[in-house]
């Protein structure tokens, strides 16, 4: 590498935009990545979110080049990299298990991609020092990985992933092995570093909180299919399916049949009063007799005595019996069974008084505008692709 190339190296290049077009992969007859299409702008953090086995890692490995695309293509910075081998894609990677070389000290670990890119030996220490500054661990060059904590090792892995200014950084559950507090502080760090260096990041997680915290866009995957793609807020406010709604936060899923009336709209559900707003009817295009679900987040619902619910106007409620009151560390979770046989949950802060005990019949009540209405079918929404 020439000196001027090295300078570009040190000063850095920004991340590239990325486009996944109809990517598919199968192991044997099973499609584990099924016709996935989405794109992200340069400098964005995208998270692939989904339950175990949904195909997140396989898709990430396709982007990296470890797994071939059976169909479709992957473009980075406008160039088709589908046929390029891993080492020609200019991608940095961070894995859950750190994957540092145990026999190399921190300097040599971080310098490894520089050596492969044939950066002159004399130029490497300053680039390594800069990468260590970026991850806020200056001066640990001589340490061995075994002399660092898990969180520090993951910072080193991050430094190694960004040291040669890749066009794309891929992260596979990078914080999965760390405890909660460390995870939260590293989430903030990842965003800071990504912004500072203009990195484009594709991150894999099954933790929706992490996805919300760090992502500009979230791709929700299930059974190899992309259910929905967009900014976290959009997904949260307008999930395209029950599966997406359920996956993006602890929720109650209430089934019913739409009844539209002059005095108001509601779900047909026995004694329960599940109101639908004009906004619901318009945005979901509801028609009378349609099977729908209303999704209500556990934090949006409250418990009230049944007689109060019956006399208060303008609020939705369903009748349910308290099955358990659970202390979950940072909140209380009330588990209930509705008359319709659904299991519901309501969240309270620890210091809040809970209006009922196990065995009581109560109303689970909420502001109708906080309910999200979607069609009862769970197939992916074409419009979200
Ligand atoms: N090398 C392989 N050979 C055969 N099947 C595989 C292989 N790798 C993954 N699979 C299968 O492909 C599906 C998707 O796996 P993948 O690891 O991509 O999912 P994931 O969403 O990343 O899950 P997790 O969060 O558990 O890692 C799973 O059903 C898995 O069993």
Automatic annotation (TrEMBL):
Pfam families found in the cross-reference section: ABC_tran, TOBE_2
Ranges for domain ABC transporter: 18-248
Enzyme nomenclature, EC number: 7.6.2.9
Coiled coil: none
InterPro entries linked to this entry: AAA+_ATPase (IPR003593), ABC_SmlMolc_Importer (IPR050093), ABC_transporter-like_ATP-bd (IPR003439), ABC_transporter-like_CS (IPR017871), Mo/tungstate-bd_C_term_dom (IPR008995), P-loop_NTPase (IPR027417), Transp-assoc_OB_typ2 (IPR013611)
Gene Ontology terms for molecular function: ABC-type quaternary ammonium compound transporting activity; ATP binding; ATP hydrolysis activity
Name the record gives this protein: ABC-type quaternary amine transporter
Source species of the chain: Nocardioides agariphilus
Lineage: Bacteria, Bacillati, Actinomycetota, Actinomycetes, Propionibacteriales
